[in-house]
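Can't paste images in this forum, so I'm doing it all in text. The chain is below; anyone willing to post the predicted structure tokens underneath?
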Amino acid sequence: MFTLLVSFSQKKFEPKATSAQLSLEGKTLKGYTTNFDFGWEDVRRGWWEYARAFGTPLNMKTYYKVTVPSQINDGNVDIEIFTQTTDGNGGSDFFLGVENEKYDEQARTMILDFKKEFYIKDLVEQIEKKQEKADDLSDEYRDSVLETKKQELLNQISTIEKEIAQLRDRIKAIELM
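Text version of the structure:
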């Protein structure tokens, strides 16, 4: 008897950003730090994708520098955002700071928005993988002639549907935070 064992990693989203300072380019930047249950390279890649929507991210080897053009930020000066991702305790730590302190609250909002989007994207990818597996099992069900095999496949599909519902609930919970 074939049993589908499904386990998906429980990444815990916490909407928490702590005040921090970081020295880059000879400047001490005030900003915020948060932690992710993901590897630092995944977070760096996620930040690059996220930042491309509003600015030009430059990889400076150990950190990213994102310039938000003045025409996008409704100002007369470009805004520079600095981020650094490092290995953390069981994941990675992410720092986001801005040179101009008057944008401090926006920096806090941005780091939390990025974190939400990052976790939601991961959950959506998990849902898509599970949906593909359910589709494969559904095809297998249509081709099966044995009733016992059909029942086993239906049980597996039902389990996957419950897991997808749980993932959707987690997405809703993150969106509400």
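Helices lie at 40-51, 104-143, 147-176. The chain has three helices and six strands.
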